[in-house]
Design goal:
Blueprint lengths: L21 E6 L2 E8 L4 H12 L9 E3 L3 E7 L2 E9 L3 H8 L4 E5 L4 E7 L3 H6 L14 E6 L2 E7 L5 E6 L3 H12 L4 E3 L5
Parallel strand pairs: 1-11
Antiparallel strand pairs: 1-7, 2-5, 2-6, 3-4, 4-5, 7-10, 8-9, 9-10
């Protein structure tokens, strides 16, 4: 059987305009999972996540994390968990650790994440998101849409944001990004560490 070759969902991402008002950085090959607390087990789930990952899980639309994993609140009792390191097996390990406390659904191959930063970021976000991204603070998050594409967006604590979209909708996100960022200059950098 032929082995499948990984292709980046961001392979069409290219600089636009002049300058670097917006800097786009693809986040590649991270373990991603949806974590949903089982009925009546949210307190135990929070205690387990604290013990295993050193993360004080919050049931609000915020980003909390450690060196190993980031949890983004995406709904009542529901989080998007993103591994800080690349490699297979993240969702399976997470599911085993949270067995009986939460349902864990693998999302690594279904979602693509892009980090955006730069001095023109607030202006760019206003052009596509129907929410006030400037009100996020350092750790805010939301499940919303950008240019009619369903997205999860969260502040990354470094003045930037990360956006997760379905891999099949990356083309729509890229169209919005390239058109909206060209006036500011769109620079593309490789993933950091």
């Amino acid at each position: 059987m032929a082995e499948l070759i990984y292709q980046s969902p961001w392979r069409a991402l290219a600089p636009r305009g002049t300058g670097a008002g917006i800097v786009a950085t693809p986040i590649e090959r991270r373990g991603i999972a949806t974590v949903m607390a089982r009925k009546g087990r949210a307190t135990e789930l929070a205690a387990r996540v604290q013990a295993d990952y050193g993360v004080a899980l919050q049931d609000v639309p915020k980003r909390v994390g450690s060196e190993r994993v980031t949890f983004i609140g995406i709904g009542p009792g529901k989080w998007l968990a993103v591994s800080q390191r690349s490699g297979p097996g993240f969702a399976a390990v997470l599911a085993a650790q949270l067995d009986g406390l939460a349902s864990v659904v693998e999302q690594s191959d279904g979602l693509a994440i892009l980090h955006l930063s730069g001095p023109a970021l607030p202006s760019l976000l206003e052009k596509g998101f129907q929410i006030d991204c400037a009100a996020f603070g350092a750790d805010g998050a939301a499940v919303t849409s950008v240019h009619h594409v369903g997205a999860t967006i969260w502040a990354t604590g470094d003045g930037g944001v990360s956006i997760a979209v379905a891999r099949s909708l990356v083309g729509g996100l890229l169209h919005w990004l390239e058109v909206s960022a060209a006036v500011h200059g769109l620079a593309v950098t490789p993933e950091r560490g």
